[in-house]
Design brief:
The complex is a heterodimer of chains A (371) and B (96). With 371 residues, chain A is mainly alpha-helical. Helix content of chain A is 62%, strand content 2%. Chain A has 15 helices and two strands. In chain A, β1 and β2 (279-281) form a beta hairpin. Residues 1-15, 340-353 and 355-371 of chain A have low confidence and may be disordered. Chain B contains two helices and three strands; from the N terminus they run ββαβα. Chain B has a three-stranded antiparallel sheet, covered by helices on one side. Classes of the chains: A mainly alpha (371), B alpha+beta (96). At the A-B interface, α1, α5, α6, α8 and α14 of A face β1, β2 and α1 of B.
Chain lengths: 371, 96
């Protein structure tokens, strides 16, 4: 059920006015949108925006949200086997954060009229993607460290520029997420450092994890610029601020000295400093592997989505019980109170966060019908 | 199957510390006000970001419309004399 924004409602009414005036109004709206983006100001949920801008954002935020909640699985795999209470508490906090990040992003997507159930249905049906990195297995405890250092490190490199994304709710969610990701990356680095400086076997385990996670982490930045289908328009709209290759290079430059400090090798013999370019060169990425994982042929694609569906189905009774409890204990609507004031009695109201229903009490009822 | 569409949307406001007002933090779904408060605590105050939380049904919010932005806020735009910087005061006059 998509919440129709007040603006969309207005557009419909405009259809009955004479065509010339509608075209003028449309041109004004486009100009206002372009000017806001050009001035580096934020687009907010009830502003007019091109349909393709809305669709692009919903697709990107949904994929981002899905990645957060699917990303809980590879790490949760190690919670019961964490080597100490300290590490266990840290890992639980991190996995809980990932759930929270998913919630922030689903909320942000809902401000554009997407419904959360619809997004989850699409994930479960395989019609929307999540980051392909989570289709790799966590084989040893060191993988928890490698994910924190490399996977969260790559995510931060990607996400910091998104804090200045042109869409307000997405940018605000990213600010919150980036603050929390910093802990994720540091705990992973510290974990790897402990192993690297530990016994010979522990050091080897850390090196093995880095060997397996390095290349998939580089793929997280997406296809090379000349093969990236969405990049150009997203950059024009200021949803994206830097190209895939630019961010990937930045990440390599950050990681090289960090690997040295860890006492671990990056599994790429071609990494070398290029004085002229002022950055590191690195070896060719195997994009056929990336394409295979995207197609569903990664080591864990099947397992991840099966577990997600099962968790959703097995949680159904909790959602039902909570809804039944709320219905039973809902305050009886009193004659003086407006109907919208009792949330449990208006279960269909899903107008999203930054999209409060309407400007007057009278039109509130109207928007609820369209929501 | 019952799912979160049965759960209304709530706006969450958090007071980060005493002396500050509640600020909008985000939104969430919950079946009732009590669960909304608990979910808000888990979602928006995992790192002691708050000492007090309000949850408000999203449907209870009445908002101004972006279409009316100009006419709605315009009356304030041509009244610079409401700002102290509008007034010229001779150099050297203190505490003013």
């Amino acid at each position: 059920m998509a919440a129709v924004t007040a603006d969309q409602t207005t557009q419909k009414t405009l259809g009955t006015v004479d065509a010339g005036r509608t075209a003028d109004a449309e041109a004004d709206r486009v100009a206002a949108f372009d000017a806001t983006v050009a001035a580096d100001e934020r687009i907010e949920p009830r502003d007019w925006m091109p349909d393709a801008y809305r669709a692009t954002l919903i697709r990107q935020m949904a994929q981002h949200a899905h990645s957060e909640i699917i990303g809980m699985q590879p790490e949760a795999n190690w919670i019961t086997r964490a080597p100490s209470l300290r590490r266990k508490a840290i890992l639980m906090a991190k996995v809980q954060d990932e759930a929270g990040h998913g919630m922030y992003l689903y909320s942000a997507a809902e401000t554009l009229g997407a419904s959360r159930d619809e997004l989850l249905d699409k994930l479960h049906a395989g019609r929307q993607r999540y980051s392909s990195i989570f289709n790799y297995p966590t084989l040893t405890w060191a993988d928890v460290g490698a994910i924190g250092w490399l996977v969260d490190g790559a995510a931060i490199t990607n996400q910091v520029p998104l804090c200045r994304c042109s869409y307000g709710p997405y940018a605000r969610a990213m600010v919150r997420i980036c603050k929390e990701e910093s802990f994720h990356q540091r705990q992973g680095y510290e974990l790897l450092l402990a192993l690297s400086r530990g016994t010979e076997a522990q050091h080897a385990m850390a090196q093995d994890a880095v060997n397996r996670w390095w290349w998939p982490s580089l793929m997280m930045f997406g296809p090379p610029d000349d093969a990236s289908s969405h990049s150009e328009q997203s950059m024009a709209w200021k949803i994206k601020r830097h190209s895939n290759d630019e961010l990937r290079r930045r990440f390599v430059d950050i990681c090289v000295p960090q690997a040295e400090a860890l006492g671990l090798e990056l599994p790429d013999p071609d990494i070398r400093w290029n004085e002229e370019l002022g950055r590191h060169e690195f070896g060719a990425i195997d994009w056929s592997e990336f394409q295979e994982v995207l197609k569903g042929n990664g080591p864990c694609n099947e397992q991840r989505i099966t577990q997600r569906r099962r968790a959703h189905e097995e949680g159904a009774w909790v959602r039902e019980a909570a809804a039944a409890y709320a219905a039973k204990h809902a305050p009886k609507p009193s004659p003086s109170a407006p109907p919208a004031a009792a949330p449990a009695s208006s279960p269909a109201s899903a107008s999203a966060s930054d999209q409060p229903s309407a400007r007057t009490a009278a039109s509130a009822r109207h928007v609820e019908e369209t929501a | 199957m019952s799912s979160s569409t049965d759960w209304p949307l709530w706006e969450v406001f958090v007071r980060s510390r005493r002396g500050l007002s509640h600020t909008h933090a985000g939104s969430l779904h919950a079946p009732d006000a009590e669960m909304a408060l608990r979910n808000a605590r888990d979602l928006y105050t995992r790192r002691s970001e708050g000492v007090s939380i309000w949850v408000v049904p999203s449907t209870a919010v009445t908002a101004s419309s972006p279409d009316e932005k100009d006419s709605f806020f315009e009356p304030a735009a041509d009244k610079p004399y409401r700002h102290p910087t509008f007034y010229e005061i001779p150099d050297g006059v203190k505490h003013l």
